[in-house]
UniProtKB/TrEMBL annotation:
<dbReference type="GO" id="GO:0043123">
    <property type="term" value="P:positive regulation of canonical NF-kappaB signal transduction"/>
</dbReference>
<dbReference type="InterPro" id="IPR051632">
    <property type="entry name" value="Rho_GEF"/>
</dbReference>
<dbReference type="GO" id="GO:0035023">
    <property type="term" value="P:regulation of Rho protein signal transduction"/>
</dbReference>
<dbReference type="GO" id="GO:0005078">
    <property type="term" value="F:MAP-kinase scaffold activity"/>
</dbReference>
<protein>
    <submittedName>
        <fullName>AKP13 protein</fullName>
    </submittedName>
</protein>
<dbReference type="GO" id="GO:0015629">
    <property type="term" value="C:actin cytoskeleton"/>
</dbReference>
<dbReference type="GO" id="GO:0016020">
    <property type="term" value="C:membrane"/>
</dbReference>
<dbReference type="InterPro" id="IPR036770">
    <property type="entry name" value="Ankyrin_rpt-contain_sf"/>
</dbReference>
<dbReference type="GO" id="GO:0071875">
    <property type="term" value="P:adrenergic receptor signaling pathway"/>
</dbReference>
Length: 248
């Protein structure tokens, strides 16, 4: 999801300015309808929806004009695939609270990937997390809610901060248990806040300590979502397009 899709119109489809084009993605259990913006008379742009599973869906390009019936201009297939970022997000989501798994992730810190790789990892994994269907009871601190803040342990927040993953940290802060994770010490006595300070991650430390901290600038162009029952509406601020998702 959140990738840019370009639609090339044929000469006969380049019609009057008052025609509105949109795309309808029909999957096995979910349907998405996205608005488009015109780049020029022959090209449209929109954003791909985050889908609920990996499958090939049917996409219809529709044209709407006030006072006229909606026309299906063209149909095509579109494939949603599972990539490494999605695998990583699923793994991390499943090991919230799992000490053996979280300690295993610390080898990434010892290998210290270059800054450009970290930024790419941050963007892709955080985006994949946004599109995961997390269970209603999911918590950053794991399933065992009987553990108190006094019990030292590794958390997903430690993982994100240790690698300097700004976007993933912001995402986790918004989830149940995210704020609570900030005061938990690991076995070395470090909290996510002290880790950010120790490693010189100023933006990250600011994000964790300022009450009025805003989302990272790098996310300002991404979608803002409003949920209502089986429906959700997204506004992608970068392209100014909207997306309606409905569960069949």
């Amino acid at each position: 999801g959140d990738s840019v899709i370009t639609v090339q119109l044929t000469d006969e489809d380049k019609v009057e300015e008052d025609v509105v084009f949109y795309l309808v993605f029909t999957g096995s259990t979910v349907q998405h309808c996205t608005s488009t913006r015109k780049i020029n008379p022959g090209s449209l742009e929109t954003i791909s929806p985050g889908h609920d599973c990996c499958e090939t869906v049917k996409v219809a390009l529709c044209a709407s004009r006030e006072g006229h019936p909606v026309l299906v201009v063209a149909e095509e297939s579109f494939q949603f695939i599972q990539d490494e970022a999605y695998d990583a997000a699923q793994f991390l989501a499943s090991c919230a609270g799992n000490q053996q798994a979280l300690n295993f992730t610390r080898f990434l810190d010892r290998s210290r990937p270059p800054a450009a790789d970290v930024d790419f990892l941050d963007e892709k994994v955080a985006l994949a997390f946004r599109h995961l269907k997390l269970p209603a009871e999911w918590n950053v601190l794991g399933a065992d809610q009987s553990l108190t803040e006094d019990i030292p342990r590794e958390t997903l927040m430690h993982f994100a901060v240790r690698l300097g993953l700004l976007r993933l940290t912001w995402f986790l802060l918004q989830q149940p248990g995210g704020r609570g994770a900030l005061s938990i010490h690991n076995n070395e006595g470090a909290t996510p806040v002290s880790l950010a300070l120790e490693r010189g991650y100023q933006k990250l430390h600011q994000l964790l300590t300022e009450e009025e901290a805003k989302e990272p600038d790098s996310w300002s162009t991404l979608s803002h979502t409003v949920h209502s029952g089986d429906y959700s509406v997204k506004h992608h601020r970068g392209l100014d397009v909207y997306m309606l998702t409905a569960e069949a």
